[in-house]
Amino acid sequence: MHPKLPYVLLAGAGVMVFILSCVLLSRGKRSASCESQPHIAEKSGLASQSLVFADLSPEEMVRVVRYLQGSLGVQLVDASRAKPSDNCIASVDVHIPAKAEVLRFLDAGGPRPSREALAVLYFGNQAEPNITEYVVGPLPVPGYHRDVTVRKYGGKLPYHRRAMLHSEYEQVAAFLKTMAFAAAPTFLKEVFEYDSTKIAFQTSAPRGFRSGDRKSWFIVFQNVSGFFLHPVGLEVLVDHSSLDISQWAVSRVFYNGQYYRDMVQLESTYVQGRIRVEKVRKAPQDGDFSSVKPRASPAALFPLQYEPQGPRYSIRNNHVLFQAWSFAFGMSLNTGLRLFDIRHKGERVAYEISVQEALSVYGSNSPGGMSTRYMDGSFGIGRYASPLVRGVDCPYSATYVDTYSWSENLKPSKKASLCIFEQNLGSPLRRHYSNLQSLYYGGLVNSALVVRSIATVGNHDYVWDFIFYQNGAIEGKVQATGYASSSFLHGDGLRYGNRVWEHTLGTIRTHSINYKVDLDVGGVKNSLVAHDMAFEMTRAPWSPEQQIERPRLTKKVLDTEDQAAFRLHSKMPRYIYFAANSKNKWGHQRGYRIQITSFAGDHIPEASSMERAISWARYQLAVTRRKEEEPTSTSIYNQNDPWTPTVVFADFINNETITNEDLVAWITAGFLHIPHSEDIPNTVTVGNSVGFLLRPYNFYDLDPSIFSHDGVFFTSEQDFTRCDINPVACLPQTASCLPHFPPFTFDGFQNS
Asked: Post-translation: what modifications (predicted)?
């Protein structure tokens, strides 16, 4: 052995100990907290102007209600305890001013439009019961109201078209438990162990077969967690059309594939032993298989996103500023999330983008399921916007925004039902790696701003997103989750779905979602243009004896509404866009393209007596002239009277010219859901997503994202580890900080 070797080994060991000590010490130190960088100052004028679209504040709601209570000269009962024979305030929401009035204010220095509310009242205590809509203003201190019902709908609104209040559901449930079920005590006790607390109801809609009907099937379930998957086989048809609750009656009863005149006949037949009973195992309170409680213990934490230098967006009142984007947001009581005055690089590209309706058509061999066509706007997509759970429904560090709605117990209901966040989508928005001729890499992370709301309407949960990309594109997307629909499995049930548990048939249903997109591309006046591709046969100029099939561009201006109404299964041009009256640097009309992602099938046969109420679903895309008297594609009153619909979208399309006009695109996206075993306990969002994209098409002279501060570019000759050349190389310094995560809070059960 070399005499110096022990000393060398000893010295080496000392160095290793020193290095390991440094590493361990450095790991033990707490990283610095992330510090927010100053935001780009937002012009206060834009944020102030956006208040023209703002939802009502709680104070405004209270003042509107007090004004109506003191000004109408009739007694108004709280909706939470109103009987059908009472007068009550059903809803209060903001009334958006006319577009021309708003644009004069936003763009031409005109006066600020009067701030007003829209109140829907049920007048049951009148000689001629009816629904009346009032515009109330000016806010914040109301001094007038005007009846707008006839102007909006062309006539009075019959009382039977009213949406059911929560109080009416409670009254029907009480009728079933105290009156109807009292006629079948033996059957209920021996078959269901009934004691009035162990059942839950789900209602069908629409409610009958002709105008004026108010007959609803009430499907009986075990009252456990996830009760939607626990049908017991009993369904009751209640006639609740009379304004006198004492006149309500059972019209039909269904049990395990058989129909009975009423509960008395059901009881008599059971006592005589002439009913085939299918006893359902009593489910525990947590629902057993229907429980969404995790079946595994927490383990390693899932990945989190954070903003090392703070949010790169700002929110002031109802106005959002993100990089080149700005817009106003709101939450309609009926239709949910909506955006106004959407601008990119300071130029308005859309006046309004909003959800219009969510339709579900069910199939089953049970009466409640087979007769159900839910129009969720009637129940209230915004009304049932769900409180959001931080870190699951939206990223933990998202901004959570409180929204307010007027609840039926005459007080504003508050919930954090809207979130806004920037999301790194984990893929490049664009990139290129060059290893030919010159050697370089250029790319841009796909980081986008997301505005989200989630509505829980019965068993359905809809995740509504509007997404803003750095290249000037906007995406509208909905993801469906929640519980599958179900019926009691009997007879030929497997023709209408899949068996998902012992007695549970997951029933087939369609989803159709309708959006309103009021694009203003380069100004209010636009035309609709279609581009596509066709093959042309030509001889090769350099070899005339050879033939080439080459694609060529096809162009067509769609001049009328009829030409711009694309039926669900018709062939639609692959590039269809709103064209401005201005051109870009290269001589092309500036435009925004509409691109739809949908798997929709037939909504309902057009021969159906109720099809006109949902005629918007005939079209994957329909472009019409914008009219103040056509603000929405449907009405909340269509649900309970689809046979004489209050609003018929098909009537919007009457072959008017749409060249150089203010235009609106009505977009329908949808999918088919056949519940299967993997929908137990819950349907997942994966694969259940549809929507649309609005993409600039020659709107700019080049891709606007090239001006993003997030871009990365370096060549083979540069030192790409230097921060001034490659900002990603700086992440160990700029992003090595601990994000500030606020404490977890959730107030979603306070207003339940």
From this structure: Topaquinone (TPQ) is generated by copper-dependent autoxidation of a specific tyrosyl residue.
Three-class SS state of 317: coil
Rounded CA separation 539/541 (Å): 6
- Are the C-beta atoms of residues 563 and 545 closer than 8 Å to each other? no
In contact, 186 and 263? CB cutoff 8 Å: no
Interatomic CA distance for residues 308 and 692, integer angstroms:
31
Question: Residue 47: what pLDDT?
Answer: 75
Domain with CATH 3.10.450.40 in the chain: 45-156, 166-290
Instruction: Say if CB 533 and CB 554 are below 8 A apart.
Output: yes
Backbone angles phi, psi at 566, to 5 degrees: -100, 110
Residue 677, C-beta contacts closer than 8 angstroms, at least 6 positions apart: 498, 500
Cα 341 off chain centre by: 19
Containing H/E element for 322?
strand 319-322
Whether 666 and 275 have beta carbons less than 8 Å apart is answered as no
Q: How far apart are CA 202 and CA 459, in angstroms?
A: 9
* Structure confidence at residue 309 (pLDDT): 87
Distance CA 247, CA 593 (A): 56
Residue 411: per-residue pLDDT: 79
Count of beta carbons in the 10 Å neighbourhood of residue 485: 30
User: Is the Cβ–Cβ distance between 454 and 386 less than 8 Å?
Assistant: yes
pTM above threshold 0.70: yes
CATH class, domain 166-290, is alpha beta
Cα(460)–Cα(464) distance, rounded to whole angstroms? 12
313-385+432-697: CATH, from 2.30.130.10, 2.70.98.20, 1.25.40.10, 1.20.1740.10: 2.70.98.20
Alpha helices in 181-311 (DSSP H): 185-192, 263-271
Give the contacts of 373 (CB within 8 A, at least 6 positions apart): 205, 206, 359, 360, 361, 362, 604, 610, 614, 642
Q: Which of 3, 127, 131, 145 is nearest to 63 (CA)?
A: 145
Distance CA 455, CA 380 (A): 9
Do the strands 347-362 and 373-375 form a parallel or antiparallel pair, or are they unpaired?
antiparallel
Nearest one of 372, 639, 614 to 485, comparing CA atoms: 372
Which residue type occupies 248? W
- The token pair at 366 is 């049970």
Structure confidence at residue 42 (pLDDT): 56
Over the range 694-714, which residues count as b (16 or more CB within 10 Å of their CB) and which as e?
bbbbbbbeeebbeebebbbeb
**Look-up: residue for tokens 């986008």?**
448
Q: Tell me, what's the pLDDT at 16? A: 39
d(CA 616, CA 639): 14
- 10 Å CB burial of residue 505 (0-12, 13-18, 19+) is buried
Contact criterion met (CB below 8 Å) for 664 and 516: yes
pLDDT reported for residue 27: 36
Which contiguous run of DSSP H or E holds residue 429? strand 412-436
* Element spanning 608, H or E: none
- Name 621's bridge partners: 566, 667
Rounded distance between C-alpha atoms, residue 690 and residue 677, angstroms: 22
Enumerate the CATH 2.70.98.20 domain ranges in the chain, comma separated.
Answer: 313-385+432-697
Based on C-alpha coordinates, what's the Rg of the chain?
30
pLDDT (0 to 100) of residue 741? 86
Write the DSSP symbol of residue 275.
S
Q: How far apart are CA 158 and CA 155, in angstroms?
A: 9
Number of other CB atoms surrounding residue 153 within 10 Å = 17
Q: Find tokens 């609750």 and name the residue.
A: 245
Name the stretches of the chain with pLDDT < 70.
1-31, 37-45, 407, 409, 750-752
CATH C-level class of 45-156:
alpha beta
Tokens encoding 706: 């090239």
What would the two tokens of residue 386 be? Answer: 């769900």
